[in-house]
Known about the structure:
Blueprint lengths: L1 E5 L2 E5 L6 H7 L5 E5 L14 E5 L1 H15 L7 H21 L4 H27 L7 H11 L1 H5 L12 H16 L7
Parallel strand pairs: 3-4
Antiparallel strand pairs: 1-2
Amino acid sequence: MWVYTNQHGVVYEYQPGRYGKHAKDKLEDFEGYVQTDRYQGYDQVIDGEKRIGVACMAHARRKFTDVKKAAGKKKKTGVADRAINLMGKLYHLEKQAKEKSLDTEAIRQMRQEYAIPILEKLHSYLIEQQGKAPPQSTLGKAIAYFIKHNQALKRYTEDGILAIDNNAAERAIRPFAIGRKNWMCVPRK
């Protein structure tokens, strides 16, 4: 099941596979921002001109929370803790914008002034830490993911209509994800 969301609603589309071709066909005439979880199938959708990629901060954050989970609840993880803390500041800004009911231009300005310096600080910090973590470790992979997708992770700051993450799409698809584990298909005899 493919899900497409924007401020107007949600569209569900069944396709027989998870190939990026399906999203490309669906969005062939679309021009604008496309926010994804950076699944490689979307690479053929995002061309950087007609369709511009926006990454999901929640997916980047989750990679660092996985480091904390692997370390155990009480153990400090240093790099992961700092990354999560800085991302938390970004989410705090988003919460403030929502509470103040800021319009999209005010949100863009707020992000430009406050979020970009946080994102740059986080990116610089992770660049410094990259050589210190084994590349195949959970931490190494989290750092590499953020650095690789840095531009797309920052892109939400360009327009106040964009979200910091694609959690709206994740919530919209949740019934199908939960259902596929619970539904039982039994062929007729």
